[in-house]
Amino acid sequence: MKLKLATMAVAGLMAAGPVLADLVMPSLSFRTGPYAVGGIPLADGYADYFTLVNERDGGIGGVPVRVLECETAYNTEKGVECYEATKGEGSLLYQPFSTGITYQLIPKVTADGIALHTMGYGRTSAANGKVFSNVFNFPANYWDAASVAINYLLDENGGDIKGRKIALVYHNSAYGKEPIRTLETLAEKHGFELSLLPVDHPGQEQKSQWLQIRREKPDTVLMWGWGVMNQVAIQEAANIRYPMENFIGVWWSGAEADVIPVGAAANGYKALTMNGVGKNFPIYDDLQKYVYDAGKSAGAGDQSGTVLYSRTIYAGFLAHMAILKAQEMHGVADITQAMMVDGMENLVITNEMMEKYGVTGMGPEFAVSCENHGGPGLGAVTQWDAAAGVWNQISEFKASDKEVIDALIEEDSMAFAAENNIDLRCN
Amino acid sequence: MFYREAGDFSTTYAEDQQTFPIKFDRYRYYLVLFIAIVVVPFVVNDYWVNSLLLPFLIYAIAAIGLNILVGYCGQVSLGTGGFMAVGAYSCYKFMTGVDIWWGGELLFRLPEFNIFFSVIMGGVMTALVGVLFGLPSLRIKGFYLAVATLAAQFFLVWLFNRVSWFYNYSASGQINAPERDLMGILITGPSTEPWAAYLFCLFFTIVCAVIARNLTRGASGRKWMAIRDMDIAAEIIGVNPLKAKLTAFAVSSFFVGISGALFFSVYLGAVEVGEAFGITKSFLVLFMIIIGGLGSIFGSFAGAAFLVLLPVALKVVGVDWLGWPTDIVAHLQLVIVGGLIVIFLIAEPHGIAQLWRVAKEKLRLWPFPH
Amino acid sequence: MNEQLAYTIEVFANGLMAGVLYALVALGFVLIYKASGIFNFAQGVMALFAAMTLVGIQNGQVPFAHLINSIFGTDIHYFGWTVHSAFAIILTVGVMVLLAVFVQRFVFRHLVGQEPIILFMATIGLAYFLEGMADLMWGSDIKTLNVCATEGACLPQGMNVWLEGTTYEALGYGFFIDNLDIVASIVAAFLVIGLVMFAQYTKQGRAMRAVADDHQAALSVGVSLNFIWILVWSLAGFVALVAGIMWGAKSGVQFSLSLIALKALPVLMLGGFTSIPGAIVGGLIIGVGEKMFEFLIGAPFLGGATENWFAYMLALVFLVFRPQGLFGEKIIERV
Predict the structure, then answer these.
(1) Cα separation of A316 and B204, whole Å?
(2) Lowest mean pLDDT, pick from A57-71, A185-199, B309-323
(3) Is A238 close to C251, i.e. CB distance below 8 A?
(4) pLDDT tens digit sequence for B208-255
(5) Nearest-CA residue of chain A relative to B279?
(6) C-alpha span between B68 and B252 (Å, rounded)
């Protein structure tokens, strides 16, 4: 009990931080721990985007952006500590890139009136803005991903996948279980057979699962993996000579780091994406000029152009646009947390904006509204070219089956609203 | 100077068995309690409670529980994470109303329990599960038992992940604590005042510590220690090993279950079993009691403080004061914590509690060291 | 050939292969426990550290590059050369020996005669330390591990085509065995034979066994405990490197490599902490047991992902009948 008192002095100093006029963007990163492989490019991209904004434009609306990085190691407790430590500094928008931390933060940000953006992860039913006032998961969510993958198969097979066998290999956690309900509904609708193959954390040993796939010979294997599970799964798929073009990962299983360790055998592996991939965006010229050449890159500076790096460049761009929107709506440059929520809720992304900031084609045009926090739910399919070492986008951004997904979102979010006595908004 | 005494002059058994035989210690203890109960709730904010005090108090309960099993009864367990999960999921089921199904039909649904009793029920259910997994300890000893309790750890986590009844059939498999109050004051949910959550946990921590202290100095504690020191000899002098080991498992699991229930309902508010109650949690609590001191209630607190507060302190120094990159600080943090553990063990193998005892001895003799 | 039977044989064979990989990790634990009574929690992290060092040396990475860059504002990452695998392995073994000396000199020499749980705790401290150190030295991002004897002759990956073809022609079902697993089995066999020969026929090996039997008696006939412990930790470091290469070849070298220790614990428990053959047999039983259970019961009836807990349950059942493990020394207690 004595030790508690001794540390009080330490934290007393901690509480007294300087207050400057700036836009604080917290970055809950995980550069260490079991998921560092994904966390490093994510954190680098986010930091580099705002460095670029500061260097090129002198901030947003004349106010400099301060990125406040806090290491979570993908651990929920550290995530909570980071949230509590940074929220007092006027943090505008949280992007934890972890489903576990997202679930912690949903009630907290709602009570504190701060915006939370979880693009392509987190709680899918947060797309319903009537229930989740402060949580946004545009441009697409897990259930969209499941549906986009099935739609892609429909397109490939002339609209008929009746009787085909589809296997889902998933991380045996909340994240991995997300698509199951959607896929089951879609299986009923389209008449395909779904088999489920869970892989326990961390997923270093998947022989059983892949032997099962070898026996059952499903026509398509979908994967919801993360961390070491991705590399091992792709390796095992190559080992059993599963045709790689029939193996489709979700957007968290489709980065360079997932396929490079497997080498040439990974050629042809497919993955979904919600953002454009590759370095062919004008913004990379600006990044080269203002960030890399100036020696201001975050981390080791070797992640530029990777899929996950581009994803947080896109995330940074969306946050940038939301801040501009909030500044425009309220006529203040140094916006508050509540204004940021308004900016997110009224965000409109147009092709002109994407062109202006050098990210043409990185994502679709869309508008967020009070009811719809989930965006259009578009996804594209990419394929790995092992010889060239690049991901190629092989389909357009296509829509998911909104009829199915909206019903599921409605059901899940209403259950949440009932359980927590939330009054519906947007009436 | 601080300790004025000239020897042991106990005239009654009660006097001999006091927790704090020295007056100064007793007053210091009252002072700490006074500050913790009366002063701290008025000065804390969200950051203090959610990042430091709640984890410290909750881990302290878990450490006390594990210390009873490992430190007092000598049965090494690595199933703490799994047992905490039992506490958390029981608490969740009781606070949302347990539904009993038979043959695909809802048989009946218990009313929703008050948060206080939900936490207690978390402890009770965990005690039952703990006894069940304690049975192999009658045959298996030492590190073999430690690894055998891992079976409980992995099985329980798998079970809670697999059976959707435990998480009320939610789509994601997470459990979320709904808002619950105690006499009109919110205890769980995001709108909880920091002081309320703090006092709620503090209450459980103090009660658990007092119960643990009284159990361990009483008859059951002596039996546990006899088993720990040599179980065959203990059996010969009439200690029933079955009863002693299983009561240790039950009491220990009860505390661990309470801490799991608080961990879920008050501290995090939403958990996913594999992430929150994985194997790392079992190791973490074991580290706490070894660093703090086996067989010491104070050691449980000291160990919890060491492993909860030190990483945060190092992070604050590295990132906020020195402005180093977060990943370097995170790596250095591991190096420093690891190094400190080794240095501590070399300096004092019996943990912080022993360091404290030695310091007290020195103070007693001061200023005349001989 | 009956299809179901063929599947069962295939799962059985792959279980054996997986068991060998588990045994590789367990071996390191056994070596240290036998010679010094230390349950080395850091074994998994040692595998990670060894594999990272190997890749770092191969690629000519600058150690502590990120730290140096942050302090001095430089921008260095690579020396610009690559090192041949064989040479890199020798250098890595050198690093592991240095680590053994360091561990003995600064940690365990000061803890001689302490209770097992204290020594266990010290290895936990060591695990934290090494994990942080490995990340500081080589960075925490994923690295691709390629161990090649010559250009193009690397560690094999993928299905053994010959076996599949032959069995398909002979039995009507092509069996799947991973090439890497075959290599791992051969390496493990050599490793075990080598270790047993070393322990039986060399002077140091005999001294090692003497220490394992009785520290004080060994000390009194002039065996240097210090040297033997350094030797044992070096051997464990070498075993960790082998395990790190085999597991890292499949998943890339990253943090999760340190979690393979969890796969070795049931093996140890079942085989006994003090027996090298026990580690191998235990590994095979666990490998086969968990794969067969998943195939026959887990996946069809329980929804899958049962391997983790079943390995421990299996070991637990064995332990109830033999509390010291299959090959462990009988525990004799006297009052």
Answers:
(1) 44
(2) B309-323
(3) no
(4) 999 999 998 888 999 999 998 888 888 899 889 899 999 999 999 999
(5) A201
(6) 6
**B155: contact with C, CB 8 A cutoff:** yes
Given phi > 0 = left and psi -120 to 50 = alpha, else beta, which region is B108?
beta
Q: Which residues contact B172 (CB under 8 A, 6 or more apart)?
A: A99, A103, A123, A174, A177, A178, B272
Q: Is the dihedral of CA B88, B91, B94, B95 positive or negative?
A: negative
Q: What is the 3-state secondary structure (H, E, C) of chain A?
A: CHHHHHHHHHHHHHHCCCCCCCEEEEEEECCCCCCHHHHHHHHHHHHHHHHHHHHHHCCECCECEEEEEEECCCCHHHHHHHHHHHHCCCECEECCCCHHHHHHHHHHHHHHCCEEECCCCCCHHHHECCCCCCEECCCCCHHHHHHHHHHHHHHHCCCCCCCCEEEEEEECCHHHHHHHHHHHHHHHHHCCEEEEEEECCCCCCCHHHHHHHHHHCCCEEEEECCCHHHHHHHHHHHHCCCCHHHEEECHHHCCHHHHHHHHHHHCCCEEEECCCCCCCCCHHHHHHHHHHCCCCCCCCCCCCCCHHHHHHHHHHHHHHHHHHHHHHHHCCCCCCHHHHHHHHHCCEECHHHHHHCCCCCCCCCEECCCCECCCCCEEEEEEEECCCCEEEECCCCEECCHHHHHHHHHHHHHHHHHHCCCCCCCC
How many residues comprise chain A?
427
| A3, pLDDT greater than 50 | no
Q: Do B325 and C66 touch (CB under 8 A)?
A: yes
CB atoms within 10 A of CB A281: 22
Cα–Cα distance for residue pair A171/C35, rounded to 1 Å: 39
B42-82 pLDDT per residue, tens: 888 888 888 889 999 999 999 999 999 998 998 888 899 99
Mutation choice for B interface testing from C48, C268, C307, C308 by most B CBs within 10 A: C308
State residue A17's pLDDT score: 44
Show which subunits contact B, needing at least 3 CB pairs below 8 angstroms.
Answer: A, C
- Residue C45 contacts A, CB cutoff 8 Å: no
pTM: 0.91
Note whether B330 contacts A73, CB cutoff 8 Å. Answer: yes
pLDDT digit string, tens, across residues A155-173: 998 888 898 999 999 998 8
Over residues A247-252, the mean pLDDT reads 94
Residue-wise over B87-106: b if at least 16 C-beta within 10 A, else e? bbbbbbbbbbebeeeeeeee
Q: What is the ipTM of this complex?
A: 0.90
